[in-house]
Amino acid sequence: IKKIAVLTSGGDAPGMNAGIRAVVRAGIFNNLEVFGVRRGYDGLVNGEIFPMDAKSVANIIQRGGTILKTARSEAFKTIEGRKQAYDNLRSHEIDAMVVIGGDGTFTGASKFIDEFDFPIIGLPGTIDNDLAGTDFTIGYDTAINTVIQAVDKIRDTAESHDRVFVIEVMGRDSGLIAIRSGISTGAEAVLVPEFEVDYDAIMKRLDKSRKNKSSRIIIVAEGDKEGGMIVSEKIKENFPHYDVRLSILGHIQRGGSPTCMDRVLASRLGVAAVEALVAGRRGEMAGLICSEIRFTPFKSAIKHNVKLNEDLLRIIEILSL
Ligand code: ATP
Q1: Largest CA distance in the chain
Q2: Under DSSP, is residue 2 helix (H, G, I), strand (E, B) or coil?
Q3: With a 6 A CB cut-off, is 294 part of the ligand 1 pocket?
Q4: Is 254 labeled as ligand-binding?
Q5: Where does this protein hold ATP (predicted)?
Q6: What's the pLDDT score for residue 208?
Q7: Does the annotation flag 214 for ligand binding?
Q8: Where would I find the H helices in the chain?
Q9: What is the mean pLDDT of the chain?
């Protein structure tokens, strides 16, 4: 291969810029020409493809978001769109590509490889940590650290007013952000979509923990069946004398400067992705398992393979006395 492209796709995640930088610089190190694609698969379809050099990724490792911008592309879901994308890549004589995104991005990449025999390697870029084949995805560590900073601040006001706070965090299908945030902020309960919620047990725990603490925090993943609003109403109904408040953290969870963990992860995986393409690999996601680089076929990396570790929920119960 002589020319490669890089793009970011799906939801943005802190650390994507560190990944772009690593791909561009590792590409140049391996004597490749590197092209950037703006706005994910939409940019491939529309031909938003431009040459990148070492300077174009200077001073971005610490920045959140993605300098290449990202998008959800309807056009790429059609065969006509993907054919247009392929023609645009070929018109620049691009031979291979690195895509940074989540499971939708890899599903699209898989189709593209099958249809056009085009080499693609993926980097796991999503705050949700919901991909198999890597212990952590790029963006997850920053997102959970953003959540715990926010929850610590809420804890101060909750404690001063003896309040119960229900805090909704991101995770449409997964409780992985909720669970680690809950453990590290001393939450009294964590509600996740992966497990049925035992409301009786939670109410008993809230009541019992009252003698030891004046504030209580319940973290609810956005993908929970009920959601933060209904959970807070249920607590109010059960304990009319509690001062219950709801806080939905929202998009602050996606932004901000990536943590050291995310910068190092993205840098290692970006280099690994380029080296994999040079070695002739394709159709796989580069991940880190027990600090070793591992490659997982796209079809096995997608999120229904990820299980939430039940032990994490169990320790919340033990530690929330
Ligand atoms: P996140 O986990 O942050 O949401 P994601 O990669 O899962 O990231 P999606 O929006 O689901 O984000 O997918 C990104 C893009 O991948 C879509 O906008 C679409 O262009 C492409 N894609 C997703 N599913 C398919 C599919 N079945 N066929 C072709 N392309 C697809």
Answers
A1: 70
A2: coil
A3: no
A4: yes
A5: 11, 72-73, 102-105
A6: 85
A7: yes
A8: 16-29, 40-46, 79-91, 103-116, 140-161, 176-184, 199-209, 227-238, 260-278, 298-301, 310-319
A9: 96
- Does residue 107's CB lie within 6 angstroms of at least one atom of ligand 1? yes
The CA 231 to ligand 1 mean position distance, Å, reads: 30
d(C-alpha 226, C-alpha 235), whole Å = 12
pLDDT tens digits, 18-53: 999 999 999 999 999 999 999 999 999 999 999 999
* Torsion-angle region of 138 (φ positive above 0: left; ψ -120 to 50: alpha; else: beta): beta
Q: Is the distance from CB of 103 to CB of 261 less than 8 angstroms?
A: no
> Is residue 105 within 6 Å of ligand 1 at its C-beta?
yes
Cβ(223)–Cβ(175) below 8 Å: yes
* Span from the CA of 107 to the centroid of ligand 1 (angstroms): 7
The label of the residue with tokens 């065969």 reads 79
Q: What is the pLDDT of residues 219-273, one digit of tens each?
A: 999 999 899 999 999 999 999 999 999 999 999 999 999 999 999 999 999 999 9
**Cα angle 112, 118, 124; round to 5:** 65
Q: What are phi and psi of 2, to 5 degrees?
A: -120, -30
Hey, which residues does 297 pair with through a beta bridge?
284
Catalytic status, residue 128: yes
Angstrom distance (rounded) from CA 146 to CA 244 = 23
Pairing of strands 33-37, 3-8: parallel
Residue 108 Cβ contacting ligand 1 at under 6 Å = yes
102 lines ligand 1 (CB under 6 A): yes
Tokens describing residue 39: 């706005």
**Residue 172, annotated as binding a ligand:** yes
Ligand 1 centroid from CA 39, angstroms? 12
What is the distance between the alpha carbons of residues 54 and 170, in angstroms, rounded to a whole number? 34
User: Would you state the structure tokens that stand for residue 162, as one six-digit string?
Assistant: 């003896």
